[in-house]
Amino acid sequence: AAAAVEPAPPMTGTVTVTLPSPALPDQPLDPDEMLAALAAATPDDAMAQVRLGALALQQGASSEQAGEYFQAAIDLDPAAWLAYGLWANSLGSSAQITLALQIIDQGLAATPDSPALQAMQARWQNASTPAPASEAYQTALEAGRNALRERNWEDAIGAAQQAAALAPERHEAQLLLGDAYRGLGEISQALQTYQRAAELAPHLSILHARQAEMLARLGRPDEAMAAGLLALSIDQSRWENWFALGRAAMASALAPQASAGSLTPAQTAGMAEAFLLRAQELAPADNQAPSRLLADLRAAFSQSAPSPTADAASDAAPAFDSMTAQQRTAARVEADRALQTGQPDQALAIYQQLAAVDSQDRASRMGAANALAALGRSDEALAALEAVSAEWPDFPFARIRQGALLEDLGDREGALAAYRAAVQAAPDNADTHFTLAYALRRAGQTTEAIAAFEAGLQRDPTRDSARQALDELQAQK
Q: Is-contact 468 162, C-beta < 8 A?
């Protein structure tokens, strides 16, 4: 089997919400064979050659042998900074510092702004052990990790941002920040943060696996497959890498358009099952994430007909306008699950039908906006959020979501305006002030950020991470 890992075309028109009906293969596929086939696909693609080079290193090839793949990637795309980075890292790790520096020099000539190549050059030119992280950095990092374990996402974000400000050249704070955004459900921000972390430490497979998971949840299965393949090409011993590729293949199998080359949805689902079974074998016994996703996959492909909540026109299910309140709630839960598992098109169709039946169903209207954003239909998502804010002017979270989406799009001033509108909508809500404060800090508007942190702490003085952020800003003045 071979799969072309290329961006899928944008989806337009009416989406029919149905799950694929063919069953999974009777016998699970061999995950190693599937991985090898996928890694060798699209040989004319630079990233495919990068993956083959990483896979060669993992299988014990020398830096020179793997370098043939990396050189092929560079020949295809001279700006493929990851090829330079992985190649130089393999040379430097085997004490071939001169050769590593030569590769880095070539890479910086083609991609002068690459932080990974800059960091490698500085480390090996100095030929000394890097300076240890400062005590303040380690304290902030540990505080963030503790908050993450307690599922206190806001405090984890604050501590991670503090650590990143103290040591912008280190990847650990970016990984922590991405995990906090992921826990909070801010998938786009998590993806961007994991991408920054991978730019700092491209040889760490977990950073690519995290990107694969976020891309799958955003409804971008082809990009998710590429990132998951890269993670496994670097390291096949981590269960998270197999899980990430399994999630990506599952998202591809459940997409309304084929996203894995010539494979059918059932064949792609068979791949997903194989990868998730390997993740289940490698995961700690108390980690149920692979088992839960396997159950979702098998449930989707065990159906011989569309699910009741997925196809409102089915004779087996009532139309949305004939559903009871309990049935509509179940449909919304199904839409939420579809959005979380990388099927925003299916989620959108359900949310829109629910909102058409009841225009006061704010949860479905917010869900539709989030699904539109996940599909890359940003203008429609922003319009939907604006409509929610107009109808419920004292509901701040539509403005907050609007601000986050505008930040993702690079419209910082628009994002700040949305966050300020959220504060005006709910001035007694501490979260609105803290959201604005962190955004102002990211924008470098220190005085306003201090005022916003102070306003938030007046309403909720228990936010230790916000107080630390405030103290840091005041110390800078």
A: yes
Judge whether 123 and 432 are in contact, CB under 8 Å. Answer: no
CA-atom Rg of the chain in angstroms: 24
**426 φ, ψ to 5°?**
-140, 75
Q: 388: buried, middle or exposed (CB in 10 Å: 19+, 13-18, 0-12)? A: buried
Count of Cβ atoms closer than 10 Å to residue 436 Cβ:
27
Buried b / exposed e along 179-213 (16+ C-beta atoms within 10 A):
bbbbbeebbbbbbbbbbbbbbbbbbbbbbbbbbbb
Q: Are 74 and 83 in contact (CB under 8 A)?
A: yes
d(CA 221, CA 255): 8
User: pLDDT tens-digit profile of 403-426?
Assistant: 999 988 889 999 999 999 999 999
Amino acid at 317: A
Task: Compute the distance between CA of residue 284 and CA of residue 266 in angstroms, rounded to an integer.
Answer: 28
d(CA 402, CA 395): 12
pLDDT digits (tens, 9 = 90+) for 343-380: 888 889 898 888 888 888 888 899 999 989 888 888 88
Distance CA 35, CA 57 (A): 15
Q: How far apart are CA 471 and CA 242, in angstroms?
A: 42
E strands present in 287-445: none
- 């497959």: which residue's tokens? 225
Alpha carbon distances (Å) from 115 to 164, 211, 226, 441? 14, 18, 22, 23
Of 239, 264, 176, 179, nearest to 214 (Cα)? 179
pTM (2 decimals)?
0.58
- Are 309 and 318 a contacting pair, CB within 8 Å? no
Among 121-135, 431-445, 455-469, whose mean pLDDT is lowest? 121-135
The amino acid present at 284, given as its one-letter code, is P
Q: Would you call 48 exposed, middle or buried from its count of C-beta atoms within 10 A (0-12, 13-18, 19+)?
A: buried
C-alpha span between 368 and 336 (Å, rounded)? 10
Separation CA 278–CA 245 (nearest Å): 11
Tokens of 299: 């449930």
Task: Provide the residue type at 416 as one letter.
Answer: L
**DSSP structure class, residue 237:** S
Grouping H, G, I as helix, E, B as strand and the rest as coil, residue 16 is coil
Number of Cβ within a 10 Å radius of residue 28: 13
Distance of CA 370 to the CA centre of its chain: 15
Cβ atoms of residues 88 and 125 within 8 Å: no
Q: How far apart are CA 103 and CA 98, in angstroms?
A: 9
Determine what percent of the chain falls in helix, strand and coil, rounding each to the nearest 5.
70, 0, 30
Contact at 8 Å (CB) between 6 and 193? no
